[in-house]
Write a structure and sequence with these properties.
Elements: H1 5-27, H2 32-49, H3 56-81, H4 84-91, H5 97-104, H6 108-119, H7 124-131, H8 135-152, H9 155-160
Helix pairs in contact: 1-2, 1-3, 1-6, 2-3, 6-7, 6-8, 7-8
Length: 161
């Protein structure tokens, strides 16, 4: 029996919507607005293309990853034009100011890899699949992110992360 679109979307949202949202929240350095919008858009894109998608979870993570990178690049361009916007983005974060600054100090690719691997417990090969990257690229991102986070965070917060 073929599932209807609402049944399929409900099941998919129940099984992986929270993971996707939490990963976007962390990768956006604690921005609820971005996590909400991009999660909704990833599900919307999946709904439009679901007949051609083989792995819904990987598809939605890739869509979300691209949208997040695009949104953060757009915000960065705005910050260059209006420095007040940078402070506004930092105050919108639900994370501690120290952790927010540390996460903003690493690339979006590194943040996404860290969140998927260390917070959502995906293997390196699963992270590669979800982000559309190679395994060696994910390993490099994780290595560089760990190094930068170690330098940016006090010992107490590194162990709490």
């Amino acid at each position: 029996m073929i599932k209807s679109a609402p049944d399929e979307m409900t099941e998919l949202f129940t099984s992986c919507g929270g993971q996707l949202w939490r990963s976007l929240l962390a990768a956006s350095a604690g921005r609820h607005d971005i996590a909400d919008d991009i999660t909704a858009e990833a599900f919307s894109q999946y709904l439009k293309h679901r007949e051609t998608v083989r792995d819904p979870l990987a598809y939605m993570f890739r869509v979300a990853y691209r949208l997040l990178a695009k949104e953060l690049a757009r915000e960065k361009r705005q910050v260059l034009r209006s420095p007040d916007r940078a402070q506004s983005a930092r105050t919108e974060s639900v994370l501690s100011p120290t952790l927010t600054e540390a996460l903003l100090g690493i690339s979006v690719e590194q943040r996404f890899a860290v969140v998927l691997h260390y917070f959502l417990d995906y293997t390196v090969s699963e992270v590669a699949s979800l982000t559309g990257s190679s395994v060696p690229a994910v390993k490099v991102r994780l290595h560089r992110a760990r190094k930068q986070l170690r330098e940016a965070l006090p010992d107490r917060e590194v162990h709490d992360v």
